[in-house]
Description:
The chain is of the alpha/beta class and 297 residues long.
Amino acid sequence: MEIGFCGPGLMGAPMIRHLLGAGHAVQVWNRTRAKAEALVPDGATVASTPAGLVGRAEAIFLCVLDAAAVEEVVFGANGIVAGVLGANGNSPVRWIVDHGSIPPSATRAFAARAAEANIGWIDAPVSGGVAGAIAGTLAVMAGGDAADVAAVTPVIGAYAARVTHMGAAGAGQTTKLCNQAIVTSTVAAIAEAVSLAQRSGIDAARLTQALAGGWADSVLLQTFVPRMTQSGQPPIGALSTFQKDVDTIAAAAYETGTPMPVSGTVQQLLRLGAAMGLADADLSGFIDVLHTPRKKG
């Protein structure tokens, strides 16, 4: 399939490489052109604008920061929809697949606007992080028309182990908010446990071994205890991303009348981190908000 892809960042770049490896032709656009050009040796081509993708692609995938970025890329003056409408029926674009994490309400509005241009919208946020993108084992939670989701699922399979259709437009984003509520609360709890261990005089790095196989064990525990107890770990994301997600969770909780006191506490912890200048810190930076010094080496 001919594919357009907007946003070759930490997540998008390995996803694009998997698509190319699966035999798909991929044309890439990014606000910073150099990030798109870095994929040319892998076989990608580069578009100058999002509208430039519509001449060849049947499906255009998005992996951009937030709802404002999605709106600009899709509905802006040089966006995808403008390109499709300007082609006077000669564009092959049939689907937009949004892998970003944005509010469900925004997704529903975008899907309705895209439908006016006869483009199907699939909200398909992912879980698994950079490691999952590199390994091609992401979990994708999808919202949209069942036929549209089924049409793009084989393509997404190039970098995902599983695609689960959760319902109409916005359902994928709501599922991702559920995921992020669990992830952010768990990482915050791990930071508290590490802090307690260190302040009690035991080696917190051994928590992964001590708790392995028990109810507290998880991929998050095994990932974040080393990151919170050792320096020099490569970054896997920024606390500001967690802040964005938790703020979206809070908005969805307000809209639906859902009590979420734990997520509310995590939101305040992240706001404190931002006030401390830690917005760009690694996701393990919860531990720094708690003022626990890290072990060197």
